[in-house]
Protein 1
Amino acid sequence: MSLTSDMIRGHTETIILAHLLEGDSYGYEINKSVQQKTDSQYEIKEATLYSAFRRLEQNEMIISYWGDQETGARRRYYTITSAGRAAYHKNKQDWEEAKAILDRLL
C-alpha cells in the first residue's frame, strides 16, 4: 500500500459524505464513483467502506434504509443528515488549511 493510499484512506468518511451530498446512494455505487473519479487509481476496500458507514451512522451523520428493488439483492441506501453536512464542510475546510500549509512546506 502506498503512502498516497494511506493518506486518502484517512479521508474515507469525508469522501463518503461528499458523495452523499449529491444524493442517496449505496456502497457499491459509492465505490464505483470513487474508482471512476480517480481513473481506477484508488478504491475503497469493502471492509473500510462499511466500517466508515457504521461510524458515520453511530455519529448521526448518515442514516440508512433498505431499497425496494424488485430484482436482485436488496440495497442498503445511505442519506446524509444535517450533522453530516456540517462535518463535511468542517473536514473540507480543515483539508484546505492543511493542504495550504503542506504546499508551503514541500
Protein 2
Amino acid sequence: MKKTINRRDFFKLAGLGGVVFASGLGNLSSAANKAGREGNAYDDFYFVQLSDMHWGFEGPPNPDAKGTLKKAVTAVNSLELQPDFIVFTGDLTHTTDDPKERRKRMAEFRDIVSELKVKDIRFLPGEHDASLDRGEAYQEFFGKTHYTFDHKGVHFIVLDNVSDPGAIIGEEQLQWLAADLKQLPNDAKIVVFTHRPLFDLYPQWDWATRDGAKAVELLMPHPNVTVFYGHIHQEHHHMTGHISHHAAKSLIFPLPIAGSQPKRAPLPWDPAQPYKGLGFRRVEAEVKKAEYAITEFPLSKG
C-alpha cells in the first residue's frame, strides 16, 4: 500500500509522541509546513527503530520483562500510519551460555515480533545475541549480520560490531564496507545501523567500537550519512564531523548516563512510573534533502 503522509497526517502523528529532536541535517516539520503552505503533499517515508529487547532477561530492573516486548508490538501496531519498515538494532535476546536456551529465546522473540503488522523487518545482532558463538545461532534465525538494502532513494548499511567478542568490525567487513561505498555516488543518502556506537562514547563501559573510527573514516567523504544505534539503553545524539549518530532507548531497562555512577548497572524500576525510560522511535526521511526527523515514543504514557 502506498503510504503518502500529508501535512495533516504529519501533525496528527507528531501529536502522539511529540517531535523531540531533529537531526543536524534538518527538520522534517519544516518540510511539512512548507508543503502545507504550498498546498502540496510530500511523499517520503518513515521507519521505526526498536532496540535492546533482551528477551529472556528476568530481574528487578523490569518486573514485567515478559510483557514489555508485547506491549511495544501493540504500540507500534497502533500507530495511525504504519511505517515502511521496522528495524531492531540488536540485543534481541539476553545472553545465556546454553546454546539450546539461546535458540529457544530467539525463536520466542521471532514469534512475538511476527505479530507486527509491518512485515518488512530488518534485524541486526547485539553482543548478547552473537558474541558467544560469533553470531552462529543468530544467523540461523535472522540471516546475515551485515548487509545493505535500498529504500526510496536511501542506501541503508547494516554493520556488525558485536559478533567479534573483541568489539571490532574487523578488516574483512571494513573492506566490504569500502567496496560498497565505492560504488555509490558521493552525494548518496546513506543511513547506517549498528548496535554499538561507532565512536568512543565511554569505552570503560564497552560503549565504543574498537575500530569504529575506521568505519567513520570510510563514511566521511559522503556528505549525507546518518547513524542509528542501540546498546546504551537511552536516547543520545552525537556528531563526528558532519555525521550524526543517534542512540535509541531500550525496551527492557534504562542505563545511566555515561560515567554518572561507578558501574553500568540498570536504573531501578520505578513502580510509580512503570516503563519509565523505555520506548521506541519513529524516523521520518525526506529523501530529496536527506533530512530526518526523530520522534521518541514512550512505551507507556502512564
Protein 3
Amino acid sequence: MEKSLFDKYGGFSTVSKIVLTLYDRLLEDDDVGPFFDDVDLSRLIDHQTKFVSSLMGGPASFTDDHIERAHRGMQIEDHQFDRLKEIVAEVLTDFEVDAPDIETIVGAFEARREILIEKPNVN
C-alpha cells in the first residue's frame, strides 16, 4: 500500500512546520501579505495546516464550499494566486519535498483557482 504524501513527509508535525514557514513568507510578500493584515493568524495557521494536510492525503478534510465561503469578498486576483503558488513551491522545496510531490500539492491549489478568484461582474 502506497503512503500518502502526508505520511511520507511526517504527518502533522512536518505539515505544521511547512505552514508556519509558509506564513512567514506570505506575510513578507508585497502581493499577498496584505490579505493577512487583520486576520487571527493562529486560527488561520491551524486551518491551513489542516487544509494542506488534506491536500497531502492526511486525515483532515475541506470542501470546496468551505474554501469558497472563507475567501468570499477577498478580491483575490490571478497574479496574487500565482504568487501564492510560487511561495508554496519554494517552501516545499526548502523542506526537501520531491519535485513530483510539489507538483501534486501545488496542483491541488491550482484546482481551486476558480473558487478563489473573484471574477468581475460583467452585467
Protein 4
Amino acid sequence: MPESGDKGRRRFLNFVLGAGSLTFLSAVTYPVLKYLTPPDTGAESGNETVSAGKVNDLALNSGKIVKFGNQPAIVIRRQDNEVKAFLAVCTHLGCTVQYMPADRVIWCACHNGKYDLNGINISGPPPRPLTPLKVNIQNDEIFISREA
C-alpha cells in the first residue's frame, strides 16, 4: 500500500513529464508550421502601388528595373514617350528580363527569349507574355500597380 508521500511524488513527476512533453511538442511543431506557411507579401495582394521614380529621370527609349513587392518590375519609357511596366520575370524559367534599347525589345539573357514593347513573347522559349502592370503618372512621378 503506497504511502501519501508516494502519491504526491508520483503526481509531481507526472506533472513534470506532461509539461516537458507539451513543451517539446510545441518547440517542434511551431517551426514546422511557420516554415509551411507562405510569407505575406504586399504585392501578392494586388493592393500595392510602388513609385518607380520621376519620368524625366528615365530617358526616352530606356528602361529600368524596380522592386515591386518581392519581384522585380521593368519600367520602359518608349521612343514615343509612353511608359510601360511589366513584371520583369521571364515566363520561361523565371529569370529577370532587361530592356535592349538598340533592338527595342525586352530580352531574357537565360535562353535568348525576346518580348516586344507590349510584353508579347516574339522569339525564344518563353511560352507566355510578360505580366503587365498598371502605370499611373502623377506630378511627373511614375507609380506602378497590378492591373485590376
